[in-house]
Write a structure and sequence with these properties.
Length: 655
Amino acid sequence: MKDIDKIIRQSDNPFESELTPGNFWYEQPDTALMVDSIHQEVVDGVEKIITQMNRNKISKTLIISGDSGSGKSYLLGRIKRTLNQKAFFAYINPWPDSKFIWRHILRQTVDSLVCKPEGQQDSQLLLWIKSLSAFRDKGFIKWVLGEKGLFISNLRATYPVGIYHAKEFFGVLYDLTNPELYPLACDWLRGDDLDEDDLQKLKVKQSIDSEQAAKNILGNFGKIAADTQPIVLCFDQLDNIPNLDNGFLDLQALFNFNSTVYNEYFKKFLIIISIITDTWKRNKQQIQPANLARLNHSVTLKQINLDQAEALWAMRLHSLYANAESLPESNIYPLKREQLENSFPGGKTLPRNALILGRNLLDEYQKKIVVAPPIPTPKPPVIPSFKAVWNREYQKIQKQITTSNQIAEPELIKMLREVLAAWQISAIRPRLLSGKYNINSFSYRSSEGQRIGVVWTENPNMTSFCAVMRACQQVITKSNCDKLYLIRSASVGHIRLRGNQVYRQIFKNSSHSHFQPTLNDIHYLATYHQLVNAAKGNELLVSANSVSLEELQSFIRESGIMSQCLLLQHLGIVPVPEITPSDLQQIRELLLTTIESQQLIKRQALIDTAIANSKRILNNQIIHHSLQELIQENQIQIMNSQAEDEEQIICLVPD
């Protein structure tokens, strides 16, 4: 058996397993490392509130404030894990635009409801449906096996008034019980702008495409919740919400939402607002007194005592003892209680500070007991430590975001603006477009002095796409930008559709450009966005030091960690690597593989596929050159060479 010092010397530092705060449906902290006594009174208090809500069927609001490092985000996750059998939980991250707040909350709520609680086979959403009194009284299986019309009629009889678009809403709830329609029904509920074919499958007239519609759908959840378990909406990381013109955070938008929950009688919504104490004190005076009166409960997280800090150490160090020949006398070996007492003479500290101290002390001990002490070296630079933080967060984001439509367009726009700000891009202005889709756009000033416009739209609905293209056309006609970038991975529609025709007028054979982002591009943006959230909340640590937003921006530029982001290459923010012979060979292989798999393919479709699947920036000229080479080598042929380029059909040359 190994002796304990040898194990410590050869093991990773267990205090390094800290997570950047975030969505508790994706974060999976080791519950074995949880000290039950820390903030237990808050968990008990929330459980008491939920019990009261079940009894009187009203909504409640709780604000949890605490210093940075007090464990607010971790506490939200613990409350969810502890009480998920008694309530449904939704994590609401910062909204990108206050004019989008209802749609943001609806989307985040549904995204959380489709998650499965621990130990459950069904999602929260299906558990919510099954808990309705109509199902309990008459049997879920009977409803599912019955006709959709009967299903809707019975639910309308159960809830005769107050349900927005009752027939369509209850019809979509029925479709949730159909595995084939479940994903589509979820997309409609979360506010995706579905195309006409998908709307017809669900038998609904239109998508949830406005603040009023989103408010009414949430109202439906709230009115039906009287017959179900409470729905807990947890608002977190509020330091990165939009600012008012006076520089204060727009918390008023959140409290307007909160008041509406009460004024319009949403039932059994528990709204938990997690916020840094200083942020709350600084911005509280900007909120209308009538809205503040809706706060039912408030709690400030206390510092932990040294017994609890020692328990945190013991939890982290316990994994080191598993293979030891004998256990050390102290359950915090090689650390000592005196080190806590000397570092925190007042007998109190924050959980994060206790963990940072433990990490630093164990690092020192590991260096002390090495067999052959190394030659002293300078303190390692910050950038490698930052890259380690980035890589951990990036890997998490890759697991969380698996499709390009998981993030709403206004959020994508905000993420891109945050990245451009890190590169010190000047004069970033929101809302380039006019009208309904203005939150899908912004503009900025390039280093050459040009006004650059950016529009990001992924909605599959071709009517909406046409409206966006017309808005783009107006921007160009009014000369509101020198160059316009369209970011869109979704289809631009058939050539006969009006939206496609306007698109071609703007982006084909012009200085304006269309780029199809990859999922990898979104991972880059989302990773940086999460680090921005943490930095603004003073929760981002690099080498045990808190990192400000300005420092984070500097690290991003100096590290070059986003240099492979194709979207930033296309926008000219980071340089595009030169095309190498190896790159050209990969392009040829990609073209041949695509043609072989399709047998017959239109030239433009082939080009679009190559651009979308390439791991580097490609332009039409490079692809056309590669195609011409393949034609000259008699590997491929054009079946209708007299047709326009975009209508030409390409196939392999038969053997």
